[in-house]
Design goal:
- The chain is α/β, with parallel strands linked by helices.
- The protein has 16 helices and five strands.
- It has a five-stranded mixed beta sheet.
- Helix 1 packs across helix 7, helix 8 runs antiparallel to helix 9 and helix 11 packs antiparallel against helix 12.
- The model has no long low-confidence stretch (mean pLDDT 94).
Length: 418
């Protein structure tokens, strides 16, 4: 199994005026849409404990995450010593048990409890209601212990960051883990800036949205001086109808025809809103995914448009790499071997830089099959071997890795003979 020894958060390229609006929208509303009346955070040093049957990969990934939170976000956070009281408890349980209680969740965080048992006893009685908090003293992160190492790591990043700070996700954010598009799987430079601002001394427990809005410009000016520039772009809010359409399009239990209709609706709404940002690109990406099996022409057109938008906005980013993965798989299945190799070569650096082993392994597997079909056996062998190492981190067991490899092998045409 291969792992990422270092993780790159990246820079923050947007003006502070935009970041301030993002901060407010992330902080004073939950994903459900419920408003939060005031800012809450931990005070003083934060200790983190691990309980349950934790997988072996967790310790290294947790240590790297806490080190980044200390150095990049300036948060006084560390592992609790044995027997020491902890403010954040990470409990690892079987995925089946987790999803029996919260069916749609891969992992989650709850306030005011010290583990799974206390969560179950107090679920629904108000104790675990984020809107009732006046400050944060205790939180439990529930993660599955029988999934891939990357899924465990991703849960640590997302849920610990929510335990510490914002509880909302915004589709408009192109450079954040606080976004349900799931393109970013580890905390970015933007996320660390948000958390650093969250724990700045100027922001205190109990501050209202208006009070925080008045304090933020000075906070961000101090923390992100390169963002002190004018911006003509406002924070274009996302209508609920678009969110609902995207959610329906991504719902695996929904019929294929309904998913395709919802994706088309999302694209239509995005175009009607006049968006030229990642929300239009993501609408097209989702449309490509849900129509690839039934309407390949529609899918390819959507992927091409999505990829072009992402590349214009962010260059060779992880967003474009996700699009390239879909396009490369199609190119492989249709015998366009050199196209498949070119698309994977374009996407591999971004997948590596974003520490996404599942994406990296998939791109490498597609490239290996294209090379094999083209008769370039030795190159194919080396690339495939590389993919297997990343696959163990991204997909977990050898069975899962082999299953993904066989899916991609099934796409490949017969070998081209000279």
């Amino acid at each position: 199994m291969k792992t990422f020894a270092t993780q790159r958060g990246g820079g923050v390229n947007r003006p502070n005026s935009q970041i301030a609006q993002d901060f407010l929208d992330l902080t004073f509303q939950m994903e459900s849409g419920r408003p939060l009346p005031w800012l809450t955070k931990f005070e003083g040093p934060i200790k983190v404990a691990v309980t349950g049957q934790a997988p072996g990969s967790l310790e290294g990934d947790l240590a790297r995450l806490l080190a980044r939170l200390r150095s990049e976000a300036g948060i006084n956070i560390s592992r609790a010593a044995r027997g020491e009281d902890a403010q954040i408890i990470i409990e690892a349980i079987p995925r089946k048990t987790l999803q029996k209680a919260v069916p749609q969740a891969a992992c989650f965080v709850v306030p005011n409890v010290s583990g799974w048992s206390e969560f179950k006893r107090n679920r629904g009685n108000g104790k675990t209601d984020w809107t009732r908090l006046s400050n944060r003293k205790k939180a439990t992160v529930i993660i599955p212990n029988d999934v891939s190492p990357q899924e465990v790591r991703d849960c640590l990043h997302e849920e610990i960051s929510q335990a510490l700070g914002p509880l909302n996700d915004l589709y408009r954010l192109p450079d954040s883990i606080f976004n349900d598009d799931n393109f970013h799987t580890i905390l970015t430079g933007f996320d660390m800036l948000i958390l650093r601002a969250y724990y700045s001394p100027e922001l205190r427990n109990g501050m209202t949205r208006g009070q925080v809005a008045r304090a933020l410009p000075a906070v961000l000016s101090r923390l992100n001086p390169r963002g002190n520039r004018a911006s003509n772009a406002g924070a274009n809010r996302t209508p609920k109808q678009w969110n609902d359409a995207i959610t329906s399009a991504l719902a695996m239990r929904t019929s294929q025809s309904q998913r395709a209709a919802s994706a088309a609706k999302a694209v239509k709404i995005a175009q009607a809103q006049g968006w030229k940002d990642n929300r239009l690109a993501f609408s097209l990406f989702v449309q490509g995914r849900v129509t690839l099996g039934s309407k390949p022409e529609t899918a390819i057109s959507a992927f091409v448009q999505s990829g072009n938008i992402y590349k214009q906005l962010y260059g060779a980013s992880v967003h474009a790499a996700h699009v390239n993965t879909q396009m490369a798989a199609f190119a492989l299945s249709s015998g366009q071997l050199e196209v498949a190799i070119r698309l994977t070569d374009e996407g591999i650096p971004a997948a590596r830089n974003s520490s996404n082993a599942a994406l990296l392994a998939t791109l490498l597997m597609i490239k290996a099959e294209a090379l094999q079909a083209a008769g370039r056996d030795e190159e194919a062998r080396r690339v495939r071997l590389d993919s297997l190492g990343w696959g163990r981190y991204g997909f977990g067991s050898e069975r899962n890795v082999r299953a993904r490899l066989n899916e991609i092998k099934a796409l490949a045409p017969r070998r081209v003979r000279s």
